[in-house]
Amino acid sequence: MLYHLHYWPTIQGRGEFIRLALEAAGAPYVDVARGDEPAGQGMTAMSHYLEDDSVSRPPFACPFLVDGKLVISQTAAILLYLGPKLALVGKSEADRLWTHQIQLTIADIVQEVHDTHHPVASGLYYEDQQPEAQRAGRHFRTERIPKYLAWFEAVLSRNPSNAGRLAQGRGPHLVGGRLSYADLSLFQLVEGLLYAFPKATKRQLKKSPHVLALHAGVAQHKRVAAYLASERRLPFSEEGIFRRYPELDG
Amino acid sequence: MLYHLHYWPTIQGRGEFIRLALEAAGAPYVDVARGDEPAGQGMTAMSHYLEDDSVSRPPFACPFLVDGKLVISQTAAILLYLGPKLALVGKSEADRLWTHQIQLTIADIVQEVHDTHHPVASGLYYEDQQPEAQRAGRHFRTERIPKYLAWFEAVLSRNPSNAGRLAQGRGPHLVGGRLSYADLSLFQLVEGLLYAFPKATKRQLKKSPHVLALHAGVAQHKRVAAYLASERRLPFSEEGIFRRYPELDG
What we know:
2 copies of one chain form a homodimer.
Chain A: E1 3-6, H1 15-25, E2 29-31, H2 42-51, E3 64-67, E4 70-73, H3 75-85, H4 93-117, H5 130-157, H6 162-167, H7 181-196, H8 198-205, H9 209-220, H10 222-229
Parallel strand pairs in A: 1-2
Antiparallel strand pairs in A: 1-3, 3-4
């Protein structure tokens, strides 16, 4: 089955959490909006689902995944759906719910990252809300980055499967003893925070050895490493969610 | 099975989406933090899950639901879990995913409502971010309320089950032909918007007849109506997510 991922073609954004899962699993997929219009892809194909009245269950926004007749939007819901199919989540209901909760918490901090540069309105330019952004950035880096990273650190350090893995020099996992989509997303979150708030993030990572080890472990995953080195991996930029505005990093 | 809901005891907040589902289903539950400390309830019981190192899978924040050994946080994840047990979601995977996506989109606008009065930081008082809040409120009521309500209206008007229901004077549903937890949550969203942004919301509801009919239909649901008239239903207030600050409503 060929998955069709629809997301903005020039940024990592929220679509990157889905791309990482598909890539880590070696799943066949099309990044539709990055494809050619004559081949039925490109932005026209994506806009159809968002704008045509004929779509009975329209996504509110991208990213969304089309799998046969199913159209699934909301990053965390897409990963909830893909997890079992890509073997990127545990088999028990408890593990699946816990992985989903972690993913939703990652979604929350991702939204907060976005709001540091768009505290007033997502429809305004950064330049039109810069004073507000500086106040928001200060609170985010001094209160929210520490709070979230401390929670991820607690989750990792309380996962009994990780003691053995770390002793063998292997990266820890958020849930049980196997790689999950939440691990991939936490890797991406740390990547993004290091890009957007390098000073504040490095400071906090010194107190978060498990998070640091997870980040290193995921980066060494064979298919993830190949993806990150490929042209399929778009660079971070000031059009995405994680933006490097030094004035927000203090 | 007695469900244990943990949430702030004095506000509706995000916990209200869970309370409404439990109440509509007539499910037995304890609103733990509103209970008595000597009975092992109250804030002490809630804090245990958030603060004790012995909790292996700690919630990041409330609300969370304890069901036997399971501890589930994140409003949308709790409803994903409860939906089938309370018969508040369809039986097919497609319906369950679609209901969850709608719920996550409701969670998004709820977060945006919160951010109108806390655009800079959730850790600061409203009074310390009032100028920013006025700008944020203006964009929220002129751009975001119309965009979200238009989407809910589209979802309702494209659900083929609703034509017959409306012809019979019955309220429409977001998914299929039965009440789901997403219907209850959309009712609560409209309640909250009418409290916080009465002018902007009433204006937009005139263009959203299906949303209006859903709101009226849910309010007439027997168990929901009994709950809303009871002391268990906390009032809206300026401590919750939906706050009536007239200066933000234009």
